[in-house]
Hints:
236 residues; alpha/beta; Rossmann fold; Arc Repressor Mutant, subunit A; five-stranded parallel beta sheet; four-stranded antiparallel beta sheet; 8 helices
Amino acid sequence: METKRGRFTFKNKLLKELKILLVEDEHKLSSLLKNAIGDNFYSFTIADNGEEGIEKFKKITPDIVITDIMMPKLTGLEMAKEMKKINSDLPIIILSAFSETDKLLNAINVGVVKYFIKPFDPQELLEYIEEVAQKFENRNIELINGFSFNQTKNNLYKNGRYIAMTNKEKIFIQLLLQAQQTSETIKMTFWPQEEVSDDRVRSFIKRLREKTSKGLIKNTKGMGYEIQFKSSKAVC
């Protein structure tokens, strides 16, 4: 590890593939962390509160979320619950004041992987993220018919050629990589405040299939939509 002007730098290629989202209402702390460890990652995005954290989470699909436990609009735990509904495997790190340790008991139920009591050493945070990074070594998911999805860049490729997609389509692919998705879960994820018909969902899927292929996304009646991995049998 190298240290320069208060910055902590690891020579770890895995870190350079990670997208980090920091949700912290203390601007001084968020700036300190970004300056101290932000250069180690593919991206290091900051949100000021829980609601903004969810918005940026849906936009950038980070690999790891670091959040304060007490924030305006949504607490870190309330925000974490919403994020876990979209990505149950998301590693979430909690930052907490010593007086808030009683709330950390609830963090276990949310699925928080680690917490740091303020004040803490940014180097310790970086070292822990490096441990988590070992789980992300294979970032390229192989799909059928020459398709692949890079989870770092959040991009879809066909035989190495980039496929242009909207942010919603990219997030949808991410969701399918984790689990089968029903029409209702798709509606709740992308149009939570709207009355959305099944036809709108089908139109959304149809446009994505036109950009990719009919066989990439399978629809099982009564079950939902699922993506076809390279080991799966292709759907004609």
